[in-house]
Amino acid sequence: MALLDKYAPLAAQYRQLEEAGANPFNVPFDDVLSPTEAIIAGRQTLLLGTNNYLGLTYDPLVIEAANAASTAAGTGTTGSRIANGSYGSHKRLEEALADFYGRKHGMVFSTGYQANLGIISALAGKGDHLLLDADSHASIYDGARLGYAQVTRFRHNSPDDLANRLRRLADEPGDKVIIVEGIYSMLGDTAPLREFAAVKREYGAYLVVDEAHSLGVLGATGRGLAEQAGIEADADFIVGTFSKSLAGVGGFAVTDMEGADILRVVSRPYMFTASLPPANIAATLAALQQLRARPELRADLNANAARLYRGLAQLGFTLGPEPSPVVSAIMPSPEAAFGFWAALLKAGLYTNVSLPPATPKGLALLRSSVSAAHSPAQIDHAINLFADVGKGLGLLPETPALAAAK
Amino acid sequence: MSDQANEIREIIFETLRAALPQSRPLSDSTHIIEDLGLDSVAVMDFVMEIEDKLDISVPLDKIAEVETLGDLIATVQRLKQAA
């Protein structure tokens, strides 16, 4: 028995996709041209699946900041903040994030994934309890596994279910830490944060909000769903990522909690990894300044999101519950999702396929994400391609296939 | 076998029958992942139903240790007795 034989069934499926020349999990971009366009398989392709919400990856000021930082401070830090030192720019970015959120402390991690691993595993220790929304991102589940707390799952977006589970744990000692997301990355739905905050107060728990997909998207100043819902005082920690609205890579946490700096020497995903290189830190700082200075980016993004959501809904696609920069069409099967995805790519539109167990309730999703950088004409073009392909494959509801599947 | 174990078994089997897309033979030696074809999320969703029916909390690390329906019945019984 070979070491990788345990993956044989999955490997067979993967090989099938490769052989069909249409593997959504391994797409080579020949060239990236802009936040909204790339060359894929020799074709000019419209990008509708890159989470580039504010379109800042090609912003001249962001690129200039990255270039200048590389020239001045070199390409890499070659070590961790704990063992090998922090650059001034790491501190400046942490201060800028704390300032943006109006919090005392900011902490930068090397990826968004590690921010969740680092915060969740460190906040809840042995004898404590983590309460996770059932549809949480893998990084939240993995953070829970990395720590030593007991982990309880509650029904997605259900404050009543959370309250019920906190009630069952009421007599157990230890702190209770609730983790929810601003916008859920699979269906683009938002959390009922006001209600969650009320439950948190009632049971004396702590609340962590992951704004990975809502930073730069929601709230009067773009801080995310906690700002929009008016419950920032109840969110003990906000975590997020630099790799979506902030056009780089990395993650962060901000908090007002006294003594939060101790996390720097107890959070293993913070300690035992290299810190972000100067170019990335400088680009993130510049992108954060753009996010704050140009609220019109948020307006454009949300207008594009509403345009795509409305367009696909009018065609008859079954979508997530509300418009957001993540617009997912529910497909009748994984095979339908693969077929639809491949046909769109051939027609010059790049989207994503999301499958269980990464998706809730066993759903097969054709997932799109829009950018402030998309023009309305690009969104309309994408909708037209969805219509053409959907009709061609018999996957629009006026045709028998989907009607029968419903 | 205690009455309580039988009662828990009945609740677990009944919940599973409702959750499975097609009916399958169920026994204490049934492997939850291999025999029933449930993925990790489906197992957690199914255990959530059990938690509510018995008003207990089954921590995720306990679910990870469970392989067969018999393991699950024993785990749930221990948690119910401790509750």
UniProtKB/TrEMBL annotation, chain A:
Keywords in alphabetical order: Pyridoxal phosphate, Transferase
> A single GO molecular function, which one?
transferase activity
SUPFAM superfamilies the UniProt entry points to:
PLP-dependent transferases
Spans through the membrane: none
Q: Domain named Aminotransferase class I/classII large: which ranges?
A: 46-384
Q: Which cofactor does it need?
A: pyridoxal 5'-phosphate
What family does this belong to? Belongs to the class-II pyridoxal-phosphate-dependent aminotransferase family.
Q: What is this protein called?
A: Alpha-oxoamine synthase/8-amino-7-oxononanoate synthase
Q: From which lineage does this chain's organism come?
A: Bacteria, Pseudomonadati, Pseudomonadota, Alphaproteobacteria, Acetobacterales
TrEMBL record, chain B:
UniProt-listed Gene3D superfamilies: ACP-like
Q: Which residues form the Carrier domain?
A: 2-80
Pfam families, per database record:
PP-binding (PF00550)
Question: In which domain of life is the source organism classified?
Answer: Bacteria
* Family matches, as InterPro entries: ACP-like_sf (IPR036736), PP-bd_ACP (IPR009081)
Q: What is this protein called?
A: Acyl carrier protein
